[in-house]
Amino acid sequence: MPDEGCEKQKKRVNLGFTLAFNHMLPQFYQACVQAQLSQAQFITLQMLVELLQRERCITLERLAMLFAQPIQFESRRRNLQRFLSLPPLQPKAMWFPIVKHWVKQQYGRGKQLCLAIDRTQWQDHNLLMVSLIHGKRAIPLYWRLLDKQGQSNLDEQKSVIAPVLRLLHGYRLVLLGDREFHSIALAAWCVRQRIGFVFRLPKSTTVKTAENSDFERLDALPQSPGTTQFHVQLQVTQKTGFGKHNLALRWKRQHRSDKANEVWYLLTNLETAEAALKRYALRFRIEGMFKDFKSGGYDMEHCHVNHERFLALLGLIAIAYTISTERGTRIRRQHVQQYVARVNSNRRIRQHSNFWIGLYGTLWIDAMDAWSVWAERLMRLKPQKRSFFLRGLRALSLIQSAF
Predict the structure, then answer these.
(1) What is the domain range of residue 379?
(2) Is the pTM here over 0.90, yes or no?
(3) Has residue 162 been placed in a domain?
């Protein structure tokens, strides 16, 4: 006979699962999306976001294969192609209202927000994106595909930054960029836009440290491991007409297994070296987000659709990504993440991000529901584990409450 406590807990769990997935999108997501789409289109969007969460794959063939419509495969594929070509699925139309509301929930007006601009390239895709640093990851804000290979230019960079500045009007912004975005013209543009910036400079950049001195390369400046320097109001590069900016120089001392032994040369309009170094260290979190979009999550690099549909799919990924991240955050607050993933307290950093916890927490609940009969049989065959099963079922219920 199954344990009575297990039976009651299991009923509560199954009920919670049904409620969670009948209302997968948060209410404000639904309100923003329904304002742009018809009822049929809204249902299609919800189904696609759910498929992204469960399958972790954005290839059109895979989505069409699993799309729940009793029509031929080729008809399902064409149906999704038409859907992904809808103008309301472009970032400014659908994603901007969602992210504006989301940022308002997370941050009070007037707070300082750090934005990271970065580019990732694979096959014939060259994606330029601005993201908001949030926790240990970044949240995509705006993106565009470049119609070329290689680095972006100033006009392309401003084209993805300017819409974000309008979107986040009222917040104090700091823009972070690696060596691709070291242009002194971009720095001068940020000053005109009244936003902070921290851009990493190549070591070959020339600076003038004093009015009566000559220009010299950054790697020729006096420096040693473990030191930090801060130079105020330097002329950077020999181009004129762009004003003067601050320079933070940091040579991190190599420790134990650290492989990198490099120097950071940071162009900034922030007032201290500590502020510039602290903000720039946050930039690397956008790389974790790109990993989640690719092999670590949604397998983005294996998607083969035209540019218009690819941008729409990125919008769906952004919705799925933020939902999973928020779920993972709530699961951690319930202190039941050990039921979703391996937790090693001896590691200096967390083994899994909130996104990973939220994504795979969903999959675990899905598996528990799909194989509930087998799970119940296993519990009957292991009566000595009764106390562990009760704790696990309670944890399952808490994870569902995060949805």
Answers:
(1) 4-35+38-85+303-401
(2) no
(3) yes
